Amino acid sequence: MKDIICEKIAEIERRENVRVLHAVESGSRAWGFESPDSDFDVRFIYVHPKEFYLRLDKTRDVIEWQLDETLDINGWDLQKALRLIHSSNPTIFEWNNSPIIYKTTPEWEYMRVAMPNYFSIKSGAYHYYSTAMNTYINYFKGETVKLKKYFYILRPLLACKWILHKKLFRRCFFRSLRTQNLTGK
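User: That's the sequence. What structure does it adopt?
Assistant: Structure tokens below.
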């Protein structure tokens, strides 16, 4: 599947006239608890040629490439990514720290190293706590609850706990989730 995803990334670069700086897996596969029917959540950061950024009209900052039973591929323009890093949006930090990398570049390595300086403990903890609460509110009201929804509550709560305990957001959080497989062993 990795080869197919890399081909899709190359196709996006050709058809959209962009250069993908960083492409990763996001979602259950990156967290280590995918199910047999899990799709591949491919996320990427891209940059247009410099002339694109000199335009006066408003331009899209998202590429939504494919959404089907197998692949969910979309990405953000570098400008959008930089704004989200500056505002400490946890999603961009997750993409930066995903253990499954489909493509990366030396330019992204500069970003990867600098990003921890912009992470806000308060913002991160609030984000994950809110994510867990929203999952609870939306999926735990009926008589039956899918097992995977428990993971969608546990994961953000564990992320919140990790952030508050370690006062940071690093790759080791994802490695910890994958190696412990949410069992604490």
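Helices lie at 2-16, 28-31, 78-86, 90-97, 106-114, 121-139, 147-166, 171-180.
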